[in-house]
Amino acid sequence: MLPQNQYRSIVTPVFPDFIEQRLQKCDEEIFRPRKNRKPLVLGNCLPNSSSIMLQSNDYLNISNHPDIRNAQLDVLSRMSREPVMSAVFLHENSDKSLFENRMAGFAGFESAILCQSGWAANVGLMQAIADSTVPVYIDFFTHMSLWEGIKGSGATPYAFRHNDPGHLERLILEHGQGIVLVDSLYSTMGDISPLREIVGIANRHACVMVVDESHSLGTYGTNGSGLVNECGLTGQVHFITASLAKAFAGRAGIILCPAKFSKYYPYMAFPAIFSSTLLPHEIAGLNATLDVIRAGDNRRKELHEKSRHFREGLSALGYNIVSQSQIVSIEGGLESDTELLRDALEERNVFGSVFLAPATPKTRSLMRFSLNSDLRMEELDYVLNVCEEIRDEIGMWNWKSTRRKRNDQ
Ligand SMILES: Cc1ncc(COP(=O)(O)O)c(C=O)c1O
């Protein structure tokens, strides 16, 4: 046994300059500009039991649902040996395949592929369908995981202006048939893609259509089957991807696709080959979650009504709200302005999530509120009162986003 003091004296190797310089840059950009020397996203204080929390993506508030917990506990208490390995070794009758079949039926697709996360789903899919010969058309505000997927595939990205189908079509006419990528519901501002127009253009030019439904699967469409389904576009979209860490409140991702494709995916995409699959109790939890989501019409109705009330309230106070959903963001713009906003909210016990570069353009940082179906109207009205009270203190009338709203009116 080692003497006691040897546990304490840990020897750390020295970093070369190329790493030290990166750490220093991070210190200058993230830590030092803040009064409290903490990253802007962390705030000054921790929430307590009476705080109003508007940070979680558990939109239907089901993460503690007893059916989901019991399904996981049941598997955990029964299984003595669980396979911990890549999904390439799994056979067709695995619990994973059974869940995939249920998810495919739920969303109106032939097949589904369960992935370790939404990130893995997007990176894996892009690697499997794109290469340096394929132009990829991507909405400027589409999630970073799809941008990373393009990078990994070696394809060239052609970014079109946010929610601008006309610009997409001009780029396709210039560069030819390829892949079109959008989010159905954008995770920073909460606005919705004009899916009918975008899918129409993709089909007209024989492009492959991919929609990331991370923030709309479970919250929109019949039984929560998503926005593509709600828009009547199911047979016209080749792939839907989604994180199951939002309304599904788990730790996983999914690709919905044609059966022809799912057969090959496990042998083409590196996240499927070289990264371990989910554990049986996680799959059992997701399976139970699907039932809870399907039966969640009341939760969805509550979520949409409360979100509308909150959006309209903020808009009436003069804030520039572009959201059409349960994600409602206030754009402070400059980081210093978003910091003032965050502090004013925290002082009044309201907690949202700060978004800044690289999640937003540098001068368009924002405070994101994620709503859930169980929030009480009094809580939302309290937040609206706070937002009314702080407008002068945070300089809201002079923000660029406020001026943009005035110019648009
Ligand atoms: C639109 C979108 N796609 C993909 C992801 C990645 O999902 P996950 O957190 O499951 O990796 C996210 C998560 O932030 C997201 O918002």
Bound molecules: pyridoxal-5'-phosphate
The low-confidence runs, each spanning 5 or more residues with pLDDT under 50, are none
CATH class of the largest domain: Alpha Beta
As for the CATH topology of the largest domain, it is: Aspartate Aminotransferase, domain 2
Question: Any idea what the CATH superfamily of the largest domain is called?
Answer: Type I PLP-dependent aspartate aminotransferase-like (Major domain)
Beta-strand percentage? 5-15%
Largest sheet: 7 strands, mixed
Question: How would you portray this structure in words?
Answer:
This protein is of the alpha/beta class and 409 residues long. The protein has two domains: 47-61 and 297-408, Aspartate Aminotransferase, domain 1, CATH 3.90.1150; 82-294, Type I PLP-dependent aspartate aminotransferase-like (Major domain) (Aspartate Aminotransferase, domain 2). It is 43% helix and 13% strand. The chain has helices at 4-8, 17-31, 66-78, 95-107, 118-129, 144-153, 165-175, 195-204, 227-230, 259-268, 270-273, 280-294, 297-316, 335-347, 377-389, 400-408, and strands at residues 52-53, 111-115, 135-139, 156-160, 179-183, 208-212, 239-243, 253-257, 327-333, 350-351, 353-355, 365-370. The strands form three sheets. It has a seven-stranded mixed beta sheet, sandwiched between helices. Helix 4 (95-107) packs parallel to helix 12. The mean pLDDT is 95. Bound molecules: pyridoxal-5'-phosphate. Residues 117-119, 122, 143, 145, 183, 187, 212, 214, 243, 245, 253 line the site of pyridoxal-5'-phosphate (PLP).
